[in-house]
Amino acid sequence: MTTPAIELLHQAIVQRVKDQPLPCYPCPHKSACCAYGTSLTPGEAKRLLRSHGEGAVYLTHWNEWRTRRRGGKCVFLVDNACSLHDSPDYPAVCRGFPVTDGSGKKPYGPYADICPEIATVVAKVERLREKGRRARPTA
Ligand code: SF4
Ligand code: SF4
After folding, report:
1. Model-level pTM?
2. How remote is the CA of residue 137 from the centroid of ligand 1, in Å?
3. Does ligand 1 come within 6 angstroms of the Cβ of 33?
């Protein structure tokens, strides 16, 4: 996705979350956004390693720290809720999702539609972009 497209999508997601907060708890979508685990900073990974051991986080071969998955969900998901949510170890990526990335400053990016509530926003933006492309005069 190009930068303007991500910006457009980001604006639409911010507006959607402002107009209607996501029903994250309890999530009616079986916490779909936790299906992939999450990316961690080295500092976050170090703290989680210390408190939960190697069964909880790992370093990928492309050098990214991530939470592990079990049964198709992040290991920190317990009874459809994040067991880290109220702790200082709640990962920054999860804190910002689906609005910002781990820095808390940049748009989350193109995968916000892993949340079914946001998927409808992404589809709407895609339809508008397609309509705009078709309406553009050709040379
Ligand atoms: S972001 Fe979406 S999928 Fe994730 S917990 Fe909230 S409503 Fe559920
Ligand atoms: S750390 Fe929590 S919010 Fe983040 S993916 Fe895992 S269970 Fe979901």
Report:
1. 0.90
2. 39
3. yes
Q: How far is the CA of 139 from the centre of ligand 2 (A)?
A: 49
Ligand 1 and 112: CB distance under 6 A: no
Assess whether the C-beta atom of 14 lies below 6 angstroms from ligand 1: no
Q: How does pLDDT run across 1-50, given as a tens digit for each residue?
A: 667 778 889 999 999 999 999 999 999 999 999 999 999 999 999 999 99
- Residue 133 one-letter amino acid: R
**34 Cα: distance to centroid of ligand 1 (angstroms):** 8
Span 100-133, pLDDT tens digits = 999 999 998 778 999 999 999 999 988 888 887 7
The total of other beta-carbon atoms located within 10 Å of residue 122's CB is 20
